[in-house]
C-alpha cells in the first residue's frame, strides 16, 4: 500500500537534474542539441524519463541545469513541462549556466552546477535533494530510495546498478559491506570489487545521489573553496564521503518500476549511436525490454497535436504497411514497407521504398524506391528517390557516419554535402 502524499518523503524533496552534457559520443546527433534533448521512443526526449520518474514519485519541485546547446532542451521544457503551478507549491526551474557567480565562470563540474544555484535551492524550503543525470532511460520510484536514505541516516545514498564484473570496468564502481555501506568508490577500475556473496557481479553508480540539503549545502561550500577539486560529485564529493562519512548504496532493483512484462530491471545509457539505435529498435520487439505502454507509470512529454498515422495504397508491389514497428502521429506510410522500425512524428515514406530497422526522427522523408537498413535519420532529413543506405558500408562511409556496429547516421548537413558534391 502506497503512503499518502502527505506522508511521502518526496513531498519534502526536490530533483536537481544535470542536463548540461555535450553527449559527444552521439556524434552529429548532438550537433544542435544536448544529449538529454535527443529524441527517444517515438514521442519523448531522453530527459523525460528522469523527470517523469520524479513526477510519478511525487516530487513537485525540480530544477534542470543546462549548459551546452541548450535551446532545444529549454524549448522542450517550456512546451512539455510547463504545467507546474507555484500556487500549488510546485516549481520547475531551468538553470542555464549564466555566469551568476562570476563573469568568466560557467558550470565547472556536476557539483559546481548545484553550488552556483544554492540560493535557488534554498528558496524551495526542502529537506532532501535528489541529484539526477538527465541522459538515461529507466523507470524508478525515487520515494523508495528516499526512505532508505532517511532510515539509514546516510550522508549520501548512491543509486547502483548490478552489472557483470567484466562490464563494471566502464563505470564508477562501489565496494560495499553486508549492510550496503559503501567502503570504496573506484572510477573505471581494472579489477572491480564485487558484491558480497556474489563474485560475478559489481555495483555501478547510476549517477543518482540523495542528500539531506543542509548536509550537501555545507559540503558544496567547502568544495567550492578547494582549489584542488574538480567540483564533481563522482570524482570529489562522493569519494570524500565514502572516506570520511556514511555513504550507502541503493540497489536499482529495489525501486525499479516494472509493468510485469519486463524480465529484469531496465536501464540504458544511450550515449553512442549503436546504443541509441539499439534501444529504440528494441521497442519494436514482441515483448520489449522496456514497457512504454504502462499507464501506471507514464512517461510525460510534450504532446504535439497531430492527425493519426495513415497507411495508403494496396497493390501487389505498392502497399503501405508496417510490421513490428512503432508509427507515431502525423506519419504517412504511402505504398512502402516499414519493418522493425520506429517512426517519430510526421515521418513520410513514399511509394516503393523499404525501411528495415530504421529510427526516423521527426519530419524526415524517404522518397520513392529508396531502401534503408540499420539507419538513424536525424530530424527533417530527406532521402532522395532511389538512394540505398545500409547495404554497402564503403559507399555509406563516403557520405554518412557509419558506427562501429554498422549503423548509419544520416543528418541534413550530410545530405547537403552529398548533394553539393554530386551536383
TrEMBL record:
Please name the GO terms that the record assigns under molecular function. ATP binding; glucose-1-phosphate adenylyltransferase activity
Coiled-coil residues: none
What PANTHER family does the record point to?
GLUCOSE-1-PHOSPHATE ADENYLYLTRANSFERASE, GLUCOSE-1-PHOSPHATE ADENYLYLTRANSFERASE-RELATED
Q: What class of enzyme is it?
A: transferase
What is its biological role?
Involved in the biosynthesis of ADP-glucose, a building block required for the elongation reactions to produce glycogen. Catalyzes the reaction between ATP and alpha-D-glucose 1-phosphate (G1P) to produce pyrophosphate and ADP-Glc.
Q: Which UniProt keywords apply?
A: ATP-binding, Carbohydrate metabolism, Glycogen biosynthesis, Glycogen metabolism, Nucleotide-binding, Nucleotidyltransferase, Transferase
SUPFAM superfamilies linked: Nucleotide-diphospho-sugar transferases, Trimeric LpxA-like enzymes
The UniProt site entry described as Could play a key role in the communication between the regulatory and the substrate sites is assigned to 67, 106
Q: Which domain of life is it from?
A: Bacteria
Catalytic activity line of the entry: alpha-D-glucose 1-phosphate + ATP + H(+) = ADP-alpha-D-glucose + diphosphate
* Similarity section: Belongs to the bacterial/plant glucose-1-phosphate adenylyltransferase family.
- Provide the assembly information: Homotetramer.
Q: What is this protein called?
A: Glucose-1-phosphate adenylyltransferase
Annotated pathway: Glycan biosynthesis; glycogen biosynthesis
Q: Which gene encodes it?
A: glgC
E.C. code: 2.7.7.27
Q: Which residues does the annotation say bind alpha-D-glucose 1-phosphate?
A: 107, 172, 187-188, 205
